[in-house]
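Thread title: Can someone regenerate the structure for this chain?

I was given the following input by a collaborator and told the matching structure tokens would be attached. They weren't. Posting the sequence so someone can regenerate them.
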Amino acid sequence: MKRHSRILGSQSTGLGCAFLSVLILMSTDAVGQYTMPPEEAPHEGTWLQWPHNFTYGSGAEMVEPSWVAMTKALVAGERVHILAYDAGSVAPIAQQLETAGVDMGQVDILVCANDDFWVRDNGPLFVQDDLGEWVILDWGFNGWGGDAPFALDDGVPTCVAGQIGLSALDLGFMVLEGGSVELDASGTLAATRSSITGEDRNPGLSEAEIEEHLAQYLGVDHFIWLDGQFGGSEDITDQHIDAFLRFVGDHTLVTMNDADLDYWWVGPEDRAIIGGAINAVGQPYTRVDLPLTAGPVQTSTGANLGIRGSYVNYYVGNAVVLVPHYADPMDEVALGLVQSLYPNREAVGIDCRDMFQWGGMVHCVTQQQPLGAPFSSQSLPVRHGTIPAALYGRWDIMGRKLLEPPSSGVYIEVGPQGRHMRFAGAE
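Best answer:
Regenerated them for you:
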């Protein structure tokens, strides 16, 4: 994955997080053991950060169709939780989804100001503690080592926790991006040192200390470290693992053939480690190689990006597996291979041509919420003016019953169509 630095066109004017929870439980001295389920475990839902132009000034409209397509595919098997930049963005997002025929009963749109759409890296990571309680991990996020705006993104896990009624565990002492780690189903974690242990991420932590934190908070006990390489402004992720290595269960490793790994800047020592990788009980993985695109990726407007695209960066949902597509002859080959890995799910191609120019694919822009992790927020914030004919009642966010809609602010309506968050005064 080659995430590029982007020239700032206009400074963000985010309004911050619209909290539905008055109290956010935070802990800075957590003890105990935590476990993160693998991505292929059952989901309650999937989180997306919706593209916007508040940070960079343009470009959102090019990639929004892919967010609509991901949402439409995912709602077949789980809820989709969308993070909008501000309250004014909610109605346009809902309109796009409704126009596309998305089942809006499966969609929530919440407001959390953010810098960009790479929710895999900055979004909430859901784990269970040793008592079975769910919490959100709030690792430090510094814009891939200071290469991109990050102040708003860094606050997203806390914002989400406040909105859905979970505790957020403050782990700001360590920087960790979600796309920098890949977990199998039995306690193995694969990662590149270049995206975690470097001076621009965690200069004050040794590798042993980083492993200790990953073991405690993700529940892993076996590490496959690749050296990786620093990408500068051409790959600000510094070679995230999820672009070229994934796990299926605890016995299968999905990657590329050696020639394609070499093309993808994976060095010979790292290729040897991949070839000899074993799981937590010492068993070699069954290796499955996905192709690269036949030719360099071209955007929807025909711009040649000069690099072939990866299919390894897919996302596993409950009912579907979202697979990068590039309008390339190898799309169907990759789709068929991924389908064979997940026979009980439908492999669905998602157009990644335009998001790829900014350095990522579908896995980079999705984040799972495991089944069992509670979601106590209200359902879709519907557009102003679509009030149901009959109402059971209105309440403010403190839980106080309202006789009339307020003149401003957020309130909840409960009626025959369910619970809906509304923004008073919205046009």
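Residues 319 and 366 are 15 Å apart (CA to CA).
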